Amino acid sequence: MLPARSLLRNASAGAIDRVILSYDERFLRRKRLTCESGASFMVDLAETISVEDGDAFLLDDGRKVAVVAAEEPVVQVTGNLARLAWHIGNRHTPCQVAEGHLVIRRDPVIEAMLKGLGATLTLQIAAFRPEGGAYGHGRTMGHDHGPAGHFALNFGGAHG
Length: 160
What we know:
Blueprint: E1 3-8, E2 17-21, E3 27-34, E4 40-50, E5 56-59, E6 64-69, E7 71-78, H1 81-90, E8 96-98, E9 101-105, H2 108-116, E10 120-127, H3 149-153
Parallel strand pairs: 1-4, 2-6
Antiparallel strand pairs: 1-5, 3-4, 5-6, 7-9, 7-10, 8-9
């Protein structure tokens, strides 16, 4: 099985095959993947990374395999987008920002919160491509407020 030890960002043009991965599957370091053609290869990266739709794994023989975001259950969110986006972000929920709406993965708790805030929700099956972290490419992985945690920062108030 041919290994892929590197990833090329936004470089799927000219790829010999495609691998279709969900949002969760696009966060990896070492994993066997199967292409649309049925061929397999081993991803063996130096560190765990977030792989995006349109990226390509570079096989050791120089060929490329394109990454495609799989369709999965998502929710299109419309309403007061600034307010809704704040509440989604406050709960560290991955969110795709589009013109006139937001997209999140299905989550009954977050959906109930958004409905309570006046959002209109439309269930869909679509590729999920959320925003990366604020400090560069990749995922937001939660946060740490140090030893005092949320209590000190919020003066005892509730958080998310």
